[in-house]
Amino acid sequence: MENPPNESESTFREGELVSVLTTAPLDGCLDYRAPSGEIELGQFVEVPLGPRKVKGVVWGVGEGTIDSKKLKSVAGKLDIPPMRREMREFLERASAYTVTPLPAMLRLATRVSDLGSPQSTVIAYKLDGLPPARMTPARIRVIDTLRKNKDKKFSIGELAKRAGVSASVIKALQQAGTLRRIETPRETDFPELAPDFQRIELNEAQAAAAAALRAGVGAGRFSATLLKGVTGSGKTEVYLEAVAEAIRRGRQSLVLLPEIALTSEFLKRVAAKFGALPGEWHSQVTQAERRRVWRKAAEGSVQLVVGARSALYLPFRDLGLIVIDEEHDISYKQDDGILYNARDMAVLRASIAGAKIVLASATPSLETWANAGSGKYRRLDLPARFRGAALPEMNAVDMRQENLESGRWISGPLAIEMRSRLAIGEQSLLFLNRRGYAPVTVCRACGHQIGCKNCDARMVEHRFRNQLMCHQCGASTSIPSKCPSCEREGKLTPVGPGVERLTEEVKHLFPEARIAELSSDSASSALAFRELLDSISAGEADIVIGTQMAAKGHNFPMLTLVGVIDADLGLNGSDLRAAERTFQLMHQVAGRAGRTGLRGLALLQTWQPDHPVMQAILSGDDEGFWRVEAAEREVAGVPPFGRFAGIVVSGTNEARVRELARDLVGNSQILSRIGAEVYGPAPAPIARIRGRVRFRILVKAAKTAPLQAALVRWQCQFKIPSGIRMSIDIDPFRFY
Ligand code: ADP
Ligand code: ZN
Description:
Layout: E1 11-12, E2 17-22, E3 30-33, E4 39-40, E5 44-49, E6 52-61, E7 76-77, H1 85-98, H2 102-109, E8 121-127, H3 137-148, H4 156-163, H5 167-175, E9 179-185, H6 204-219, E10 223-229, H7 235-248, E11 252-256, H8 263-274, E12 279-281, H9 287-299, E13 304-307, E14 319-325, E15 333-334, E16 340-341, H10 342-353, E17 356-361, H11 366-373, E18 378-382, E19 393-398, H12 412-424, E20 427-431, E21 440-443, E22 460-462, E23 467-469, E24 476-478, E25 492-495, H13 499-509, E26 515-518, H14 526-537, E27 543-546, E28 559-564, H15 578-590, E29 601-606, H16 612-619, H17 622-636, E30 642-651, H18 654-666, H19 669-673, E31 677-689, E32 692-702, H20 707-716, E33 725-730
Parallel strand pairs: 10-17, 10-18, 11-13, 11-14, 12-13, 14-17, 19-29, 20-27, 20-28, 26-27, 28-29
Antiparallel strand pairs: 1-4, 2-3, 2-6, 5-6, 5-7, 8-9, 15-16, 21-25, 22-23, 23-24, 30-32, 30-33, 31-32
The site of adenosine-5'-diphosphate (ADP) has 14 residues, from helix 7.
């Protein structure tokens, strides 16, 4: 692998003052004396902090703010490559952009256990001898888990968790000689990826797009490209060509996917194309594997990492390409803890690393669409589905004409289409973005609606689990038999549909059909979810009923009908992105139909067939939709043409929360001075979550205004009482 351009970094000699950024929750860096021997800028170290030792990075020359008598020395160096200047710059700029303390950014960038402890071995369990004489379901699960993950190293705890068994089952299998306990090196090298392993013939549009991306990678400097094409148009094939080019040039690539459940399918595809598996990084990857990927990224020896948004903070030695697949997906926006949008941070990282970034989508975010329109990004279009597979036909079902009896959600036209699919062995998908059985439980006697006791939210019935659940805080109770308000028996009634209730209706209408439910409640783990997806792909279900978990890039070859139960859901929110999101979701869901040659049909049940968003979806005039949406936002000066910051002040004491929120708004001259407008405070639309009262303030500024710096100075003017939290969300996606 070629060396990246030399960084002429400074080094410090023993006793010199260095400033160290630690992972401790402080505001900034601390001064220490350099230890014996030389120490480099970016070196990972351990430093004493009070009675403890904490990890940190040498960030610069010490500032001399600590009394020299109290000054301590760096305790030791960690055996990992120093953090490169480029990474340090990335963390600093990401911290400034998101108004997040730098130590919190460092924690994001070092999320591995025993970082820097010497290379060692791990104990793993492998299949060895024959199956045991006595088989139990638990034993079968253990053996299956190992069979399916031949190249993984599971500790006993991880294996037990994956297989859903207790550790004693594994020990017994070891004693029976079925499993072997082995010691293996912790971090083996990744196998080489061969860029020309599989040669496929690209169609004309693909070839042109691939050539443009290859040239971009070859240029060796930052550029951004929107790769737009409907689902199935062959975008993945095209951006994998860019990955191949980066491999040829000895630079590393990162592909971000919006959904962990999509990774295993994607990894198979990479293995088919490059002859070996890349690095994998997300929350379900084992600790040992995370450590390996982190280290190999830093050493420059993993050529490709496929992962979730946090993979963006891996210490790549020479990052040449980032791909954001389904770049519009809202899961790229992390909205608890550190609030950041991985898509935007990826653009920042690419610009600092001198890398190419590819944003792939059928329905780009308005931000990206506008950037491509203004020439800031390049734009490449893949016009048709690969091999000319037709896009699904989209029709509205006007629910005003349907007169469905109460408790029924499937319209006549949709039921007819489902029946005909069932007759010829094709699959149907019913889409409803609501988990559980019913969103509301009402008392027919007094009208009381059952709410969560911690949150300003209604409890959602989950009949399958026989519980009421709060989707805000996760609280659950059993379903009461009498109304908590008027105490009358047997009067509580579910109102409105959730996927579980829809399943009930489908069973009633099509008793002979095989039904699969796809929601975040229908599988206990990512692996179980994957298996469910595979069984649907293999044709083991006739009718799939799903929430947005069903909308993402899964490939169901036999699916030719999509019915959207409530296409208006989400259309009427006050949310800035309501129209955009409905548009994207409908597109995406409809794109599930007819991916392989069979002609697909999407039926959108709507009460507002004349709504402009519905019209744009039905007519297929994508560009028209974006133009109208962009024009409206430009006039209003809202994102992407202006900038928002969402501020939430929360705490258990309502009076004090309100007081601070008022104080913040009342003393916001620093913000007015940069031309920002401040709205609020208002009780948040969900005014209470987990027992904490919430007030919202919205700050709107021009794109060019120095918003973040002003926010920091504004925030510093106030003393935030203990027990009260203030969070600042730059470019918020949530407005509740
Ligand atoms: P997208 O990423 O736009 O959804 P994909 O790249 O996944 O599209 O392509 C859709 C399907 O068509 C996949 O099964 C893929 O393997 C296949 N495909 C795409 N391009 C080609 C090609 N040039 N030759 C053969 N198969 C292709
Ligand atoms: Zn709650």
